[in-house]
Amino acid sequence: QVQLVESGGGLVQPGGSLTLSCSASQFTLRDSDVAWFRQAPGKGREAVGCISRRDDKTDYTDSAKGRFAISRDSGDDRVYLRMTSLKPEDTAVYYCAVPVLWLDRICQLIESEYDFWGQGTQVTVSS
């Protein structure tokens, strides 16, 4: 059974940085698109960004552009979400997700395109 595990969340002050990690069992992340989503209290889940299997191209939502960066480490088969200049509105549970099937196109920032999800890791931005 595919399992995704996010780690690295925590409490950080506004303006600070945090790096989240996504790892998987029964699944090879380097062979897949991987997306990050988040869900703030009382709100729906929204995309943050994704990294494509093809050429490791990345795409981000407007709220993440310029502050967040997604990368892979093929050596340990993890995907990272580096977050900088964090704001209180970035407070949310962050999830990584992968699709069942890989399609030869840039990764999608659409929730319904992803089939396997982790349990999430809490990020709280507060002074």
Describe the structure.
With 127 residues, the chain is mainly β. Helices cover 0% and strands 46% of the residues. It contains no helices and 11 strands. Strands 2, 4, 5, 6, 9, 10 and 11 form a 7-stranded mixed β-sheet that branches.
Helix/strand order, N-terminal first: EEEEEEEEEEE
Global Rg: 13 Å
- Percent of residues in helices comes to under 10%
Which structural class do the helices and strands define?
A: mainly beta
Shape: globular
Indicate the proportion of strand residues.
over 45%
Q: Could you tell me the number of beta strands?
A: 11
Distance between the termini: 40 Å
- Low-pLDDT parts are none
What is the average per-residue confidence, as pLDDT, rounded to a whole number? Answer: 95
User: Number of helical segments?
Assistant: 0
How would you sum up the major sheet?
Answer: 7 strands, mixed
Protein topology:
Blueprint: E1 3-7, E2 10-12, E3 18-25, E4 34-39, E5 45-51, E6 58-60, E7 68-73, E8 78-83, E9 92-98, E10 116-117, E11 121-125
Parallel strand pairs: 2-11
Antiparallel strand pairs: 1-3, 3-8, 4-5, 4-9, 5-6, 7-8, 9-10, 9-11
Task: Write a compact overview of the structure shown.
The protein has 127 residues and is mainly beta. Helices cover 0% and strands 46% of the residues.
